[in-house]
Amino acid sequence: MEKSTESVKGKFLSGINLTIKPELNKVNRTGNAKKNAQAKVLLRKSKVLKAGVTANS
Amino acid sequence: MRYAYYTDIGIAFDYEVFDFVSTGINGSIYKRVVFTYIFQTEIYNLAFGDVLENGEIDDFSISDNKDMAKILSTISRIVKLFLDKYPNRKVFFSGSSPERTRLYRMAIGNNLEELSEIYDINAVLKNGDIVEFRRNLACVAFLIGIKS
Questions:
Q1: What does pTM read for this prediction?
Q2: pLDDT tens for each residue of B102-125
Q3: Domains in chain B, please, with CATH?
Q4: pLDDT tens-digit profile of A33-57?
Q5: Do B77 and A35 touch (CB under 8 A)?
Q6: Is-contact B104 B142, C-beta < 8 A?
Q7: Domain count of chain A?
Q8: A49 close contact with B: CB closer than 8 A
Q9: What is the rounded CA–CA span in Å between residue B133 and residue B148?
Q10: Which domain holds residue A20?
Q11: B11-27 b/e with 16+ CB inside 10 Å = b?
Q12: A19 and B10: CB-CB below 8 Å?
């Protein structure tokens, strides 16, 4: 697979070497279905999110 | 975070999949972070775990490679990479068990000053309320955005 590198900026990311891996594009993105469902239930309960803002944004 | 982190990180073109290799007493173990759209317009779930032979993520695995701090430090940087790419998105995550959620809460609390310079960190409570993260606050998940 052809790979290429990406640059990063900032002290927090200092030293990180990012490599684009085309094979990662084919990875299953659905994640853990049970956890995603639990997250949705929690987030739907949130009055703050329903109002369109978060507590600290 | 004051901890070392893995510096060689693979990414998908869209910055929604990342992988790196944990090296420790049990050898080299592939780890993967996947950001999955879950809610409203911009909330993405962070899934993390070992990469299985079939390519799936096992988020219940306990590899016991004695590098937990280094892994968490690496994930905190992966979240930054994701949010730098998509500054309007927010990252939702929780542990695969209450113990792991507590571990994440402690890791955030122990590094709150540094992390708060970079992120807006919110805690998701059991009743779904979302409040600003505080140390020792009982919560079931976290919602992270990049500081604007």
A1: 0.89
A2: 999 999 999 999 999 999 999 999
A3: 10-146 (3.40.630)
A4: 777 777 877 777 776 565 555 555 4
A5: no
A6: yes
A7: 1
A8: yes
A9: 17
A10: 4-49
A11: bbeebbbbbbebeeeee
A12: yes
